[in-house]
Amino acid sequence: MIALDPDSPVPPFEQARAQLAERIRSGDLAAGSRLPTVRRLAEDLGLAVNTVARTYRELEAEGLVETRGRAGTVVAWSPDEGERRLQQAAADFAERARALGVAPADARRAVDRALGTG
């Protein structure tokens, strides 16, 4: 499921978070899929329970997973949901840019800079 590189300068929680996020966004882990318990994943990866708990908290903050108490942690994101959120974020940005009086071309340049493409 997850392969950690002990020689990597990237902290283990971030390696785990990035790999799980990629599997969720790619559809490899579909919405509704149940993730291993924090204790189970910690044991499997040889990590502290708190490290895995942080990984799950970060994924939850991104909206990728949802923790349901005793029911466990499940994937909450799907490609359709991702597209919906992207469209909503774009609409929110456009509304804010208009309210600030920003010209459309300037708003597009700001997005390009934020994405690192301009």
From TrEMBL:
Task: Tell me one Pfam family matched here.
Answer: GntR
Identify the CDD domains for this entry: WHTH_GntR
What SUPFAM superfamilies has UniProt attached to this entry?
A: Winged helix' DNA-binding domain
Please give the PROSITE patterns that the UniProt record associates with this protein: HTH_GNTR (PS50949)
InterPro entries the UniProt entry points to:
Tscrpt_reg_HTH_GntR, WH-like_DNA-bd_sf, WH_DNA-bd_sf
Q: Which residues form the HTH gntR-type domain?
A: 10-78
Instruction: Provide the alphabetized UniProt keywords.
Output: DNA-binding, Transcription, Transcription regulation
| UniProt-recorded name of the protein | GntR family transcriptional regulator
